[in-house]
Write a structure and sequence with these properties.
235 residues, single chain, 6 helices, 3 domains, alpha+beta
Length: 235
Amino acid sequence: MTSGNDKHRRAQPRRQGGASAAGRPFVRAIATAAFALVLGGCERGCLSTWLAELGVGRPSATPPKGALPLSGVDCPDGLARCVGGVVEVSRASHYTLPCADPQAGCMCPWDSLGPCPLGCAADGVEVVVPPERALAQLCATDPASPVARPIAPTAMPPGACDDVRESTEPPTTPAGPSTPDENVYRCLASIVVACSSSGGRKAVAACVRGCFHDGDTVDEEEADPDEAARILCAH
């Protein structure tokens, strides 16, 4: 990318008068000494930055090694989702802000794993699931073969929400880490449970064929109870 300094270089002002030929070596010596003092206090990369600010040379398209951007977005891996009947997995990446190319680079990348013959179990819900079971877990099943059935709200397996601190409980003291507030659906012992830090804890569904994986969760902000059961229960 061409910098503003490259596009609009300022014309060097004409020298009016100037030092005599005899005085020029002395001026050059003073400039050299000052330049050395400036460089003495610089870390690596200071020279190129300083010259670019003066309009000399072309600034690098990427920051110098070791330089930190003012702000940016870290895109995680390990997530999966089904959108429009296609299962995708997230790819770890980073982009800085402001973004140089809003249409191409200002979003986190997702890689396609493949289509679902019967559509998504829950469209757009992002979950932590390994790629090798993302297709099986996020694709919808035959409606004639449901994966979950209703259950009494009190039929919670023991300890299903023990690691979710209620908002009425004080945080753990500095002697031990505090469990963050959570609002998740969790599948444990073939039961999908709503575990909320606000105190709402209840069973929401029973898995016909068990959980895909005991302990898996779906964020309550991402899905409703039916969608969570379709994702967390084995197909």
